[in-house]
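Attaching the record inline, Q. Sequence:
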Amino acid sequence: MMIPDPIDQVAEIAKTLSLFVAPGNIGEVRGFKGRIPKGGFYFDATQIEQAARLAASINATAGVFLILNKIELKLNERPRLKIVFELTKDEDISRRIRLLIDLDPHSAERGADDASTDAEKESARLRMIEVDLWLDELGWPAPMIADSGNGFHLIFAIDLPNDEASKELIREFLNALSKRFSDDQVAVDISVHNASRITKLYGTLARKGEDRPERPHRLSKLLSVPAGITEVSNILIAKATLEALAESTPATADDSLFDR
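Structure, as predicted:
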């Protein structure tokens, strides 16, 4: 296991929280031990350092995650910086402001609850670069790039309502992207289309499965953050969906992507 320096870890977590929770908004952090929820807490942009310390303390025994999208201000009434079990649901998101592409090693040797090997993780890194370059050629702006501990994330800025049309737009995009880029080694996670999506809280230790030399627990971290925020339009998302389907192999492109 890579044991983080407590001071450095809190600083890295605080950096992530400050990027994801804007002034005037609230954020939510939650923990899981394996698949078992360990509760979570709310905070605002004035409480970044306290939130980072609390997240680091949860990370001593559990994996830690962060809500991606903008939370309704009606949840302001919930306790701050205290562990609670009533947490954000899809209907509690006011706007979709981020789109997550999760590239995860996917092999016969890796169980669903196992960390990745170094070789598996490197395969995910190379596939992440391939996806990023492909989207760049379609005119997409630069994303945040993150190491999740076991795979890699591309996170793009968007600005969409939290409604059924937006959900379907993102769901169809991720399915098409998976058809274009997933194989028996690396998969595009197609399950991350929901509005209250959580992602790894970068700066925390990924605690998936048993910590073993060949499948170690690793620190997650932000690798690249663009200087300015340029949102991906729904037109660009739809264009990428069509391009990905067109470039898929016939065997996969014939699958019924748009089944409801």
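DSSP finds six helices and twelve strands in the chain. The longest helix spans residues 118-137.

More tomorrow.
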